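Bug #77: duplicate submission created two jobs. Keeping one. Sequence:
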Amino acid sequence: MWRVPDINDLLNSISQREIDAFNNAAASSSDANTSDPTVRQIRSAVAFVRGYIASSPKGVLQDPDLKPLPEGLIPPAMDYCAYQILKRLPGDISQSRTDARKEAIDLFKLIPIGDYIPESHSSTAASGSKSAVTVALSSRLRAKADALDRT
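Kept job's structure:
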């Protein structure tokens, strides 16, 4: 299933206090485009991950809306996003968060080489989706030679 990641997803990787500090720092900067800085960071992370999905040699179909991600890629995308937010705040970033970001990027790098294949957006379509029919057809038992001889 594809869906749009939100702040609740991000809260699995970063605390509300850290998000508030990031929003306050962004609001006090000279950047004129400071509306919803956390939402912009989430969208940036989504675009980053979708770039990897677009380079998949397996032809993964993406949602044309440009905002959703496959459910399985949302947690690593939020780990990446959390790091991007934290590097803009004063202080050191913990090793566990640095490792989480590295693991997320390592996973994303598997997509263009075909070692990780995200689900296509079309596989979440309503009943009767083409991918469901393809799976059903490909799992049929094949006739054996002795059965063909009797026809």
